[in-house]
Amino acid sequence: MTLSNLFTNFDLDMETLTKILDYSSDEIFVLDKNKKIIYVNDACKKHYGLNKEDVMGKLSLELVDKGYWFPSIFPDILERKEPITIKQTTVLGAELLTSAVPILNEKKEVELIVTTARELQSYKMLKGKEKDSDQRKEMEDSFTSIITNNKKMKNVLKYARKVAATNSTILILGESGTGKSVLAQYIHENSSRKNGPFLTINCAAIPAELMESELFGYTPGAFTNANRSGKKGMLETVDRGTLFLDEIGDMPLPLQAKMLRVIQDKKFIPIGGTQEKTVDIRIITATNKDLYEMVKNKTFREDLYYRLNVVDITMLPLRERPEDISPLTYHFLYKFNRKYEMNKLISKDCLECLTHYSWQGNVRQLENLIEKLVITSDDVIGIHDLPEGVYRQSQLLIDKTVPTSLNEAIELAKKEMVRASYKLNRSSRRVAKDLQISQTQAVKLIREYCQDLQEN
Ligand SMILES: Nc1ncnc2c1ncn2[C@@H]1O[C@H](COP(=O)(O)OP(=O)(O)OP(=O)(O)O)[C@@H](O)[C@H]1O
């Protein structure tokens, strides 16, 4: 029986079929081979705030570029030509579980892509009611969302997926709060170890004397106050999985030697023990310090540095990817609205301010601010809710005037140079050195141009 027979037999005309599709709570989205949207049902309104008519006939890239949803599923599906499921975040802050299926012609070329998207929240509501809720939870938790609209960051993720497939040690570099830990988790989830454990040790947070026993474990009676039955170390717990050593630059030197052995030979001896243990682990490390400089200063072992740095990945500071600020804001707004059972919105000019701010604390600073704003603001988060420093600095950049005289141009250039140098150096002594001026002059200029930066 053909599809049209079926429609005829059940009296299904086009109008009824459209109605059926529009009543589906899941979004249905069809793309042709030119990536043009040829069909979408009414669910697009609740997911992106767009009418069907605003979507149909458009190139999907056009809407992705405007930030209506991210990441795009289409580059991957066109490359792999097989069904894919990913997590997406929309401009309205909804989190979707999106599955796309390619329909291939006889030459194995993609003819159509049929996509369905469902809000993850509805999975959560089903939790506990269904037998397979554990499986569902697993599915939800198995997606680490790294939100980005930035081309360089997309390449970083592509590269990360590529190296995830190997077993090599990876060093993730980048300023604090740029997402090094989320990237480590993402690499684990995209590796063959994804069903094994993923454990993080923050080398800066654990006292040096405790770190060794945490990592290697100890045998019964290894030292005074030790647990009588001994303790399994993280290296053993994470067998067949991934160990993420955050802030590796803070690992004490004696421990660095022991770690080198684990990486080279996959072997270690627990504290107080005599028997060697073998483990199968992948090690990912991260730091915001200049490890190479530390090697030169002999505070980090050179041999370990080269062992860890087989593959290095650098996370970009948020100020270098302003196109990520809006999607991340919506993502966090959705997250904290859910956490605090609120329904806060954000005004357009407030979002504009956030986009122009320099975010020295990167994504973490943005996340913390949105959490605070969700708790403290009225129904719509407006510019009056922003901390003074964020508002003032962003206004300076928004109001950037085009100079009309040479003197004004010189003044603007001076201001920009001082601000840029201060953002980087954060001290009048270093600004003076950087701009080749006296420290007294630097103090005066910082006071004049960087007050808002000093407050944050
Ligand atoms: N691209 C992203 N998408 C969604 N959330 C992100 C993204 N990047 C970072 N975050 C969130 O921002 C916060 C800070 O990220 P993370 O802890 O990974 O940064 P980090 O670089 O490891 O920081 P540190 O160097 O201080 O350990 C986390 O809550 C993380 O979930």
Automatic annotation (TrEMBL):
GO biological process terms on file: regulation of DNA-templated transcription
GO molecular function list: ATP binding
CDD domains found in the cross-reference section: AAA (cd00009), PAS (cd00130)
UniProt keyword list: ATP-binding, Nucleotide-binding
Coiled-coil residues: none
InterPro entries according to UniProt: AAA+_ATPase (IPR003593), AAA_lid_NorR (IPR058031), P-loop_NTPase (IPR027417), PAS (IPR000014), PAS-like_dom_sf (IPR035965), PAS_fold (IPR013767), Sigma_54_int (IPR002078), Sigma_54_int_dom_ATP-bd_1 (IPR025662)
Family annotation (NCBIfam families): sensory_box
Protein name per Swiss-Prot or TrEMBL: PAS domain-containing protein
Species assigned in the record: Metabacillus sediminilitoris
Lineage: Bacteria, Bacillati, Bacillota, Bacilli, Bacillales
